Structures are given as structure tokens and as C-alpha cells.
Amino acid sequence: MKESYSKLDENNAGHISFEKLITSFPSQLSPCQMRFLHCLYDITTQNQLFGADEFIAMNNLSRSITKLSPSTQEMYEQLPFETLEESMTQYTELFSSVDRTARGRIGVGALLQILGTTLERHLEPDTSLAKQIMSTMNKDYDDDVPRLEFISYIPYFLYLEGMT
């Protein structure tokens, strides 16, 4: 992956544009999925250059999006793009706030806490909504949720917000 990044960073500036980045994405991404990734790129580049580590993470995220279930991928088509940057910032900050050791992963219990906050509901693991969330994400209560996987599910979380 770092070799792919080096090829795209032709002038060795340590930064690549979104237009160059998308040449490394899977071709089956929908236009709305690309807009989601572009929004994340814009958030990322507000405070830093888009370097090799960001390139690798974004490529892994783009691939994980293509592996989501068709019904979860459909959530990207319903995204409220006018407020997406604010929502993504909120969710990533909530993730960081519960990932106190900066492992880049949180437990399902912490995920339910985050969603309880955003949905303004108390989510116990045995409630029907919590079971639905764990089923959609193919997770058991004892599992961890890596940061990139969490980000790939933000459209689903926003869908849940719209349902409450």
C-alpha cells in the first residue's frame, strides 16, 4: 500500500488529492459512497496532510464499505449530505471519547453507549434495538468494533437516528 501511495504522491509532498486517492478505490463504490469518503477526506485534511497512513486507512475503509450487506450499503444512498460532516465529526469524537486507551477499537458495550447517546435511548444488550444493531453489524456483545468498521457504519447509525 505504501508503494501505491508513493506512486500517487508524485512530487513527494506527503499529500495526495482526493482525485488521485479515488483511483485506488474499488470500482463498485456508488456515487453516494464516494461522497461519504470525500467528506471524510475533507475532515481529515482540515488539520493535517493526507499522508501514507491516511491513504492506507481510507483504502481499507473503501474496501470494507463494499463488503457491507446490501441493505447496509443502501443506507449510503439516504445520507443527509448537508449535515454529514457534522454527524461524522460527532460520531468519530464519541468513538475517541470511549476509546480511552487509543487502541483504535471499542467493545460492543461502548458502541451501545455511543448509540444510546445519539439516539437518546438507553440501550441494554438485551433490548430489541440493541440486538438488531448487533445482528446488522454481525457482532456479539463480547466483540470489539475497530474504528474503520465503526466509521463504515455511520450511515446505518444515521438511519437509526432518523427512525427515532
Architecture overview:
- Strands 1-2 form a two-stranded antiparallel sheet.
- It has ten helices and two strands; from the N terminus they run ααααααβααβαα.
- It has two domains: 1-67, no CATH class; 82-164, Orthogonal Bundle (Recoverin, domain 1).
- The relative contact order is 0.13.
- 59% of the residues lie in helices and 4% in strands.
- With 164 residues, the protein is mainly alpha-helical.
* CATH fold naming of the largest domain: Recoverin, domain 1
> In the CATH hierarchy, what is the class of the largest domain?
Mainly Alpha
Low-confidence stretches: none
Overall shape: it is: globular
Number of strands: 2
CATH architectural category of the largest domain: Orthogonal Bundle
Query: Strand order within the widest sheet?
Result: 1-2
Organism: Ciona intestinalis (Transparent sea squirt)
InterPro entries: EF-hand-dom_pair
Protein name: EF-hand domain-containing protein
Layout of SSEs?
Elements: H1 2-8, H2 18-21, H3 31-44, H4 52-66, H5 70-74, H6 84-98, E1 105-107, H7 108-119, H8 128-136, E2 144-146, H9 147-152, H10 154-163
Antiparallel strand pairs: 1-2
Short description:
This protein folds into 2 domains: 67 residues, no CATH class; 83 residues, Recoverin, domain 1 (Orthogonal Bundle), CATH 1.10.238. 59% of the residues lie in helices and 4% in strands. This is EF-hand domain-containing protein.
